[in-house]
């Protein structure tokens, strides 16, 4: 949310009530970390469950450590360099009594969400140390700078670009980073079969070890999204429509309704409605949901069969593609019939002005993300290395990275892949 929106709400309800509402929303969004952890753990193999949990925990904890002295000021500090960056501040230490704690916590949990999106796409083969370094960099610098452009009074905000809660600032950035990281470190062992010329001839599915945990994570995320989007009604409509559309499509296309794909479709609808949730009506939310439900299926297929990028949880399809779609949707479906909305999209008589601003935001934020995160991952890879050894990947990161014999001590686990069964 921009500074102007926050000020208007604060003036309307009073400082204390606003602070309470803000912190409740922050608690909802913080709980989304549990949702991401459950989705990613459930959609990957049991031998890496502990590693997934640890990465999601450290996203928030490391993010807090760097957001205090650096990230918060860069995001919401006084403009510098023509709206490119905010000025870092140590107000949390120098003016403790008057520090804007509710605003700090709310933006901190948003920052943690951006970082944790990448965990699932790079799951099961990334060095834990390398992941911690990545998490610190994106939380301290990369996310706060582009978020300042959008929410901190930066240059995009001054032009009129609109992203209510982060389709672009959070989800597209996290999804783009996920694609870059997964592409640079390569696929998991056995994901793709290649011929003698290196051409992919077959894509192998690695079923997640616990679809129940994955589903729980999906419901937690949906619940948390009401804090993300300010409990907008459209936040219910779009994901519900997206899920039904995905169910029908996969039923017709594959003969059975796909459980994991439908869970991801719910998240795709939530991502897509995040930017326009406050400026679209029910009709717009329905159309946004329909496209999101189809786009997530296309995205998973594209990563596997065209780009040959191994994304174990579908993070690129959910967050990158639908983050782009949700941001563009503002320029198509914004309507003044939405409460207190002053924007008009292309399909509501507003012409191409707002659509052009949204496209400008997508292009510039994506360019920033691609350039910075490619550099970050390349440096990490050349120094400490991105990927674990083949032995570590086969045995599992729980054992090799954390000394954890199993995340499920006392249970006998079987790994079912491509119709065959072997002890994991």
Give structural notes.
This protein is mainly alpha-helical and about 425 residues long. It is built from 16 helices and six strands. The chain has helices at about 5-15, 15-40, 50-75, 90-95, 100-120, 130-150, 155-160, 165-185, 210-230, 235-255, 260-275, 280-305, 315-335, 355-385, 390-395, 395-400, and strands at about 80, 85, 190-195, 200-205, 415, 420-424. The strands form three sheets. A two-stranded antiparallel sheet has the order 1-2. The chain has a two-stranded antiparallel sheet with strand order 3-4. A hairpin with a 2-residue loop joins strand 5 and strand 6. The protein is globular, with a radius of gyration of 21 Å. About 55% of the residues are buried.
Provide tags for this entry.
424 residues; mainly alpha; two-stranded antiparallel sheet; 16 helices; 4% strand
Number of strands: 6
User: Mind describing the biggest β-sheet?
Assistant: 2 strands, antiparallel
* Beta content: under 5%
Give the helices and strands as they follow along the chain: HHHEEHHHHHEEHHHHHHHHEE
Radius of gyration: 21 Å
* Broad structural category: mainly alpha
Shape: globular
Which helices and strands occur, and which strands form pairs?
Layout: H1 3-13, H2 15-42, H3 49-76, E1 79-80, E2 85-86, H4 91-94, H5 101-121, H6 128-151, H7 155-159, H8 167-185, E3 192-194, E4 200-203, H9 211-228, H10 234-254, H11 259-274, H12 282-307, H13 315-333, H14 353-383, H15 390-395, H16 397-402, E5 414-417, E6 420-423
Antiparallel strand pairs: 1-2, 3-4, 5-6
Helix pairs in contact: 1-2, 2-3, 2-5, 2-9, 3-5, 3-6, 5-6, 5-8, 6-14, 8-13, 8-14, 9-11, 10-11, 10-12, 11-12, 11-13, 12-13, 13-14
């Amino acid at each position: 949310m921009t500074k102007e929106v926050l000020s208007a709400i604060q003036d309307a309800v009073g400082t204390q009530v606003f602070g309470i509402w803000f912190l409740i929303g922050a608690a909802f969004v913080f709980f989304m970390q549990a949702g991401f952890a459950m989705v990613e753990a459930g959609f990957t193999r049991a031998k890496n469950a502990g590693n997934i949990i640890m990465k999601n925990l450290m996203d928030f904890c490391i993010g807090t450590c760097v957001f205090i002295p650096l990230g918060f000021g860069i995001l919401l500090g006084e403009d510098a360099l023509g709206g490119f960056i905010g000025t870092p501040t140590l107000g949390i230490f120098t003016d403790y009594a008057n520090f804007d704690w509710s605003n700090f916590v709310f933006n901190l949990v948003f920052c943690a969400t951006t970082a944790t999106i990448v965990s699932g796409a790079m799951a099961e083969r990334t060095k834990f140390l390398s992941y911690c370094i990545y998490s610190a960099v994106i939380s301290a610098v990369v996310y706060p700078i582009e978020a300042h452009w959008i929410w901190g009074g930066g240059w995009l905000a001054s032009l009129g670009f609109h992203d209510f809660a982060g389709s672009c600032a959070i989800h597209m950035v996290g999804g783009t980073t996920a694609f870059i990281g997964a592409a640079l470190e390569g696929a998991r062992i056995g994901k793709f079969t290649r011929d003698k010329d290196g051409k992919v001839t077959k894509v192998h599915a690695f079923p997640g070890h616990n679809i129940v945990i994955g589903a729980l994570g999906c419901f937690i995320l949906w619940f948390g999204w009401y804090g993300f989007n300010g409990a907008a009604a459209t936040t219910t409509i779009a994901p519900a429509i997206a899920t039904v559309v995905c169910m029908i499509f996969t039923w017709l296309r594959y003969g059975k309704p796909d459980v994991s794909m439908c869970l991801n479709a719910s998240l795709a609808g939530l991502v897509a409605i995040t930017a326009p949730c406050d400026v679209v009506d029910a009709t717009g939310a329905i159309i946004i949901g329909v496209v999101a439900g189809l786009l997530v299926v296309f995205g998973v297929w594209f990563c596997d069969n065209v780009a040959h990028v191994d994304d174990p949880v579908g993070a690129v399809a959910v967050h990158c593609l639908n983050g782009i779609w949700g941001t563009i949707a503002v320029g198509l479906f914004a309507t003044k019939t939405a409460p207190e909305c002053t924007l008009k999209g292309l399909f509501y008589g507003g012409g191409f002005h707002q659509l052009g601003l949204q496209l400008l935001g997508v292009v510039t934020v994506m360019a920033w993300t691609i350039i910075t995160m490619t550099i970050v991952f390349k440096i990490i890879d050349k120094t400490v290395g991105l990927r674990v050894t083949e032995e570590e990947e086969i045995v599992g990161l729980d054992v090799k990275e954390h000394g954890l014999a199993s995340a499920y001590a006392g249970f006998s686990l079987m790994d079912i892949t491509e119709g065959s069964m072997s002890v994991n």
